[in-house]
Design goal:
The chain is of the alpha/beta class. The protein has a single domain, classed as Aldolase class I (TIM Barrel, Alpha-Beta Barrel), CATH 3.20.20.70. Helix content is 45%, strand content 12%. It contains 12 helices and 8 strands. It has helices at residues 24-36, 56-70, 85-97, 115-127, 139-142, 148-154, 170-179, 194-199, 210-225, 229-245, 253-261, 278-290; strands at 8-11, 41-44, 76-79, 102-106, 133-137, 160-165, 185-188, 204-207. It has an 8-stranded parallel β-barrel with strand order 1-2-3-4-5-6-7-8, surrounded by 6 helices. Strand 4, helix 4 and strand 5 (133-137) form a beta-alpha-beta unit. Helix 6 (148-154) packs parallel to helix 7 (170-179). It is globular and about 45 Å long. The N and C termini lie far apart (46 Å).
């Protein structure tokens, strides 16, 4: 199964009110604004979307809101999995019934299963649905690396169509790209690795920075794929300070502050995350003042 999720997917935050409730109006506005600024597909309720702090009912509300906002032409991938396999299966089935376009299958945090456990966990989820599935390897959050052999074994499942690789291990990523079956794509899981992953033969990026500079990330990828590496290098260097700024504290703390700062009211993160520190706020404001921001905040009455 090959599904055109696009080269630029955004790992979308979950907007909230000042008192920490879901802000579905801002969720819809942000989803539409992301598409207008270059996003080709949206991942809803992943780690950037604060999935561990959301109830299952809230995740479903976010999925439905985002899908209704962007319509049938823009894929929405549901972050429906965690380290509870049975619950993940039920949420995967729910996402399919609700008309979502795909699933993000994230390496379970905290449990630290063996590699065979990852294969069994993801196989059970993938076989419970017809939706295309993108694996997500994120050792920094899961405390576990999904090794290439595991990824490649799962790539044999007919509806596992790719992986978001957040290991930052270019040797590992290159092995997956080289040995993957036709139709299995590799997206960078880190904005800072986008160009390197493309040059290794990867497909695109699942981005955090695309909340702010989606068109510029798309331009970078277009330049590289069109055989203009010099232009891609220039754009990569230009974007690097902003990308670094977005990870000066735990994601999505800086991003939520940045969006609020440019007039896109998305509220604070939920505990156990905190709003950006004063030092981070100063760093974020300084970086925002230097560059061009692609996303357009909605007009407020």
């Amino acid at each position: 199964m090959t599904v055109p999720f696009g080269r630029l997917m955004t790992a979308m935050i979950t907007p909230m009110t000042d008192d920490g409730e879901l802000d579905l109006k801002s969720t819809a506005e942000l989803a539409r604004a992301l598409v207008a600024s270059g996003t080709e597909a949206i991942v809803a309720t992943g780690s950037t979307g604060e999935a561990p702090a959301l109830s299952d009912e809230e995740k479903i509300q976010v999925w439905v809101t985002v899908k209704e906002a962007v319509g049938p032409g823009v894929p929405v991938i549901a972050g429906a999995t965690d380290n509870n396999t049975r619950k993940s299966v039920e949420l995967a089935k729910k996402a399919e019934r609700l008309g979502l376009d795909g699933l993000l299958l994230t390496v379970p945090a905290y449990s630290k299963p063996p590699q065979a456990g990852l294969i069994a966990h993801f196989t059970l989820i993938a076989e419970a649905t017809r939706l295309p599935c993108v694996l997500y390897n994120i050792p920094g959050r899961a405390a576990l690396n999904m090794v290439p052999e595991t990824t490649l074994a799962l790539a044999q499942l007919p509806n596992v169509v790719g992986v978001k690789e957040g290991s930052a291990d270019l040797a590992q990523i290159g092995q997956i790209i080289e040995q993957a079956p036709d139709g299995f794509e590799v997206w960078s899981g880190n904005d800072s690795d986008t160009l390197a992953v493309l040059r290794a033969g990867g497909y695109g990026v699942v981005s955090v920075a695309s909340h702010l500079v989606g068109r510029q990330i798309a331009e970078l990828m277009t330049a590289e794929l069109a055989g203009n590496p010099e232009r891609a290098d220039v754009l990569d260097r230009r974007l690097a300070p902003l990308v670094d700024m977005l990870f000066c504290e735990s994601n999505p703390i800086p991003l939520k502050f940045a969006l609020n700062e440019i007039g896109f009211a998305v509220g604070p993160p939920r505990l156990p995350l905190l709003p950006a520190s004063e030092a981070a706020q100063a760093q974020i404001r300084a970086e925002l003042a230097k560059g061009t921001i692609d996303i357009k905040a909605p007009a407020r009455a």
